Amino acid sequence: MATKVKLRHKIISKGRKSLYLDFYPPVPHPETGEPTRRQFLGLYLFMDKAELSKEIKLKESKGEDAQSLKKQRSEIKTLTPIDKEHNIETLKIAESIRQKQENYLNKPEIYNEYEKEQLKKRELGEKNFVEYFEALANNRKASNHDNWVSALNYLVSFTEGSLKFADLNEKVLEDFKVFLLTTKSKRSNKTTLSQNSAVSYFNKIKAALKQAYKDEILQFDLNSKIEPIKAVETRREYLTLDELNKLAKAPCNNILLKRAALFSALTGLRFSDIQKMTWRELEHINGQGYFLNYNQKKTKSVEVLPISSQAYGFTEGSENPKHMPQNNKVFDGLKYSAYHNKHLFQWIGAAGITKDITFHCFRHTFATLQLFNGTDIFTVSKMLGHKDLKTTQVYAKIVDDAKRKAADTIKLDL
């Protein structure tokens, strides 16, 4: 049904008529969204006494009170040529507004296909890229969601929360690159955001641009024109087998932390998966050994991981995990904080190890030692729960470098 737009007036003070648009059926109010019939234009016409008399008679014929209009008779002046010219020009403006509004509200019926396409492009260009990015972030899961939210926080800081799609261009995105590489970290306002974090966050922006192109909000593939930020190689610290044995024998003020760390070194599990692990996830199969059936907290993928009897021993459970309280946590009370890290650092020091070791390094240790001992990279990748073999190849490079150094240690005294 087409919307009809009429130009109407309302008599106000000093013999003036305020002009407004009358919509039928009602249209959403531009600010509140509530249905409305009226839109005042902020334009007015001057009336003469004859017009005012007609308005008074019209009201009285309808049985309405016309006293307020009668009081204005003394305020009515004879229209000057300037007043008349004002009325003519104002009516032209008001009619032009009325026509545009009617065209806009009925564009499917009035505009041709080209005009409709241009209108659609303009409307899409007015959309807020930051809000679009936030919607994409909310649809992500697990740690990927957290990464998107972090990227969103930096995008909001850069744009102050508003960036129209129409204003998205290569320069804006290049400026955002510079912003990421120079801004302070939101976790520690004393240090600059790391380059690899900047890489990750900017890649989320590129993914959003790619999706916007698929959704036909962007009219061209802007993502393909923008180069990503180059990642820098990071050192993945790990323990040698000799160092791991020293740790196993060294005293630790937090026995629970020690058991969990050695469990991680023998299974490759992340801290988050060890912390949430319940006895229900563990099982023992005669002739095959122990298995862990769990959902990775980071990726939400379902994994079945065989674990050694020695690794299971660090749980301090009964021989068959089914005999343990199934809903209880295996490492109940395990926590990760600056305070608990203190115990980790003291333990590392007690073993005579000078490397900068965090809990996650025990996962690196598992992967590196597996490759050192001949386990193929595909198997190691599956045991770590990696979705992409490229992630595991970082450990293979570590092993290759270590083998190179080992080969160079044997020299003949010629």
Strand order of the largest sheet: 1-2-3
Helix run count = 17
CATH class of the largest domain: Mainly Alpha
Helix-strand topology string: EEEHHHHHHHHHHHHEEEHHHHH
What does this structure look like?
The chain has helices spanning about 50-60, 65-70, 80-105, 105-110, 115-125, 130-140, 140-160, 170-180, 195-215, 240-250, 255-265, 270-275, 310-315, 340-350, 360-370, 375-385, 390-410; strands at about 5-10, 15-30, 35-45, 280-285, 290-295, 300-305. It has about 425 residues and is of the alpha+beta class. It folds into 3 domains: about 5-110, no CATH class; about 130-225; about 240-410, Intergrase catalytic core (hpI Integrase, Chain A, Orthogonal Bundle), CATH 1.10.443.10. The protein has a 3-stranded antiparallel beta sheet with strand order 1-2-3. Helix 6 (about 130-140) runs antiparallel to helix 7 (about 140-160) and helix 7 (about 140-160) crosses helix 9. The longest helix is centred in the N-terminal third of the chain and has 25 residues, at about 80-105. It is elongated and about 120 Å long. It starts with a strand and ends in a 6-residue tail after the last helix. The mean pLDDT is about 85.
Ordered list of secondary-structure elements with their pairings:
Elements: E1 4-12, E2 16-28, E3 35-46, H1 49-61, H2 67-70, H3 81-105, H4 107-110, H5 113-125, H6 129-138, H7 142-159, H8 170-182, H9 195-214, H10 241-249, H11 255-267, H12 271-276, E4 282-285, E5 289-295, E6 302-307, H13 309-313, H14 338-350, H15 361-372, H16 377-384, H17 389-408
Antiparallel strand pairs: 1-2, 2-3, 4-5, 5-6
Helix pairs in contact: 6-7, 7-9, 8-9, 11-15, 15-16, 15-17, 16-17
